[in-house]
Write a structure and sequence with these properties.
The structure is a homodimer. The first copy, chain A, is α/β, with parallel strands linked by helices. The first copy, chain A, contains ten helices and six strands, in the order E-H-E-H-E-H-E-H-E-H-E-H-H-H-H-H. In chain A, helix 2 runs parallel beside helix 3, helix 7 packs across helix 9 and helix 8 crosses helix 9. The structure holds a DNA duplex (30 and 30 nucleotides).
Chain lengths: ~210, ~210
DNA sequence: CTGTTCGCGTGACATTTGTCACGGATTTAC
DNA sequence: GTAAATCCGTGACAAATGTCACGCGAACAG
């Protein structure tokens, strides 16, 4: 343990990764041992490298940060995961923590000490951005969380499928799909497809088609 | 002109800005003189600082990169603008260049030499990411292809307004709005609101509500 | 001047959407 | 056990959407 803390960077933007690497590389106690550009690759590298800490972007193509986090936790690698996100929505924070992330910080945090946060999660601490560190976010309840089925439907909606198409692909009645749609909007306090799509994209609920 | 090239960074993510700053600060010929976190602030700082080059993110809250670029060009400051984007859609590249950007590079460019790109645009060159450097993108023709009225309607749609609401705010028949909607989708080869919203957001056709 | 194109507007109508009321299967709380 | 809460499913129906055919005036080419 007197060794350096090993870090894996997972972010879809190479430029961002490079920036982080630079920010970390002059800290003698840290060592960036790998980079991945999407969730799937992140999981693969995590298994190979078994880093102490994984810095994971939330929104990514192929497999988003939440998914990847779950997969990595399931694999029992023992890495602590520090989630980076653009959004401060409680729902997302909650989901991240439930997925097993050990920290959640916002990209727009002005004075984020990334190295410090990494050390803290490596030490077993939970690190939350002040903006999201509401105690309520830690207590488990369901916020505006959608059910798996609903998320599935939402994905199809954003991809531009009609209720009928979704129904046929999922072998359901079109009515059923319509009701799922309605329930999703209910929880979100939304009444129109357009709003729904904006919300889904903004909050990274879906992988963009 | 033998002085350093002055640079203004405009990006909504503080962490990203800091990364860029680090990448640039060991180049002796460049000097980052300011940072802004949204388009509006970018315009303001541009007027104050009159930097040689402005590195501008495309997607930002308050005022997006395109808008900001136009405003800055209008103000006749003489700064060259290098647009950073996540998307390689032709439409966007075109819009950026028409707005007056001197360069367009993708954030995910693996080996982007940001410093080099900055020097080039400072020297008056146009810098395009290889992925988007199709000659067709340079020839002026269709913009987004949408008429002003259609863009106006689109803005309302993405904001979650119904045809009826739009009609009343614009003092039109609901039918008319519906037809505008149809025409927009026609030109874009789209048939559903959901797809339309995704497209509009992706290509920066609208200011997100 | 004349014909053509294009932006903007309209009403009518088929399709898709958003809502309603309801049932069965599970899970959790008492 | 029973009751309450969820999740998933259904049909029926009103409201919004997507498409149709069409008129009007302005801009432009001949």
């Amino acid at each position: 343990m007197s060794d350096k803390i090993t870090v894996l960077l997972v972010d879809d933007h190479a430029l961002v990764r490079r920036g982080f690497r630079r920010m970390l590389e002059d800290d003698e106690t840290l060592s960036v041992v790998g980079e991945a550009s999407d969730g799937a690759e992140g999981v693969k590298l995590a298994k190979e490298l078994k880093p102490d800490v994984i810095v994971m972007d939330c929104q990514m193509p192929v497999m988003n940060g939440l998914e990847a986090t779950r997969k990595i936790l399931d694999a029992n690698i023992g890495s602590a995961i520090l989630m980076l996100s653009m959004h401060s929505e409680d729902t997302l924070v909650k989901q991240a923590l439930e997925a097993g992330a050990r920290g959640y910080v916002l990209k727009e945090a002005l004075d984020l000490d990334l190295a410090g946060a990494i050390k803290n999660v490596a030490a077993g601490q939970t690190v939350l951005d002040p903006k999201v560190a509401k105690p309520q976010a830690l207590k488990g309840e369901r916020e505006s969380g959608l059910t798996p089925r609903e998320l599935e439907i939402l994905q199809y909606i954003v991809a531009g499928k009609s209720n009928k198409e979704i129904a046929s692909e999922l072998e359901l009645s079109a009515n059923t799909v319509a009701v799922h749609r309605a329930n999703i909007m209910d929880r979100l306090g939304i009444h129109k497809t357009a709003e729904l799509v904006v919300y889904a994209i903004r909050n990274g609920l879906v992988n963009l088609p």
